[in-house]
Amino acid sequence: MNKFFKIKKESLIIVDTCVFMVGVEKRQTNPEYSLEKMKQNWLNDALSYFENILIHEIVYSELDAATRKIVDEHIGKNIQIVSDKDLFDKDPEFMRIFNEIHDHPLMYAPFSKTKNRGEVHSFAYACYYGIPYFSSRDTDACDVCKEIEDLNKITIVGFETMLGIAYKAGGNKEKRKAVKALYKEFCSPKIKQGAIPKTLAEFLGEEE
Fold it and tell me: Which of 79, 85, 148, 162 lies in disulfide reach of 74, CB 3.0 to 4.6 Å?
C-alpha cells in the first residue's frame, strides 16, 4: 500500500488536465466545490510547492478560463507550457512512443478525438524527455505506466499526494478538514483497490 513520499521541490513534473478538474461536476451547485475553495484548500499549495511544473499546451487548452487564470499566475515562475509540435509526425522515436501510448486499450478512444488527448501527449512528452513525475487523478495512468515498458521510469503522482502536500503546508482547522474530506471522496477508487490507506492521516503516517 502506497504511503506519502515527499517529492523534491525542484523535480520536474508534468500535470494532466484531470488534476485541475476536481469537483467540476458539482462546482456550479455546491460552493464547497467551487474553484475558489479548491484554490484555497489545496491547489495554491500544490502549485506553489513544485519549482518546475510542465503543462502540455493541449492540457492547457482543455482548462476552463477561470482555471487557466490560476495557472497563468505561475507561468514564467514555476510553470512552463510545453509543446511537441517540433516532434509530432517528424521525430520517429517520439512517434513510436506516442503511438504505443495512443493505441493502448486504456488510452485508445475510437469514438472521440479529444478523449485522453492531453494525457497521451503529456505521457509521450514525459517519456521522450525523461521527465520523472506525471501527476494524474486517472487510475488508468498507473496501469499504463506498468504495462508500457517505455513508461516504467515515470512515477505517477496521484491526487492523494497533492492533498498531502496541501495538508502539510498548514492552515486552519477548516482547511485541514476539507482536505481530509477531498481525500476520502476523490481518492476513493484507489482506496477501494487497496492501493492507498483509507484516511489521509494514515497516508501521511500521522495520528488522526
Answer: 79
pLDDT along the chain (208 residues), means of 10: 87 96 91 94 96 98 95 97 97 97 90 85 97 93 93 95 96 95 95 94 87
**Rounded to the nearest 10 degrees, what angle do helices 117-129 and 139-147 cross at?**
40
> Are residues 67 and 43 in contact, defined by beta-carbon separation less than 8 angstroms?
no
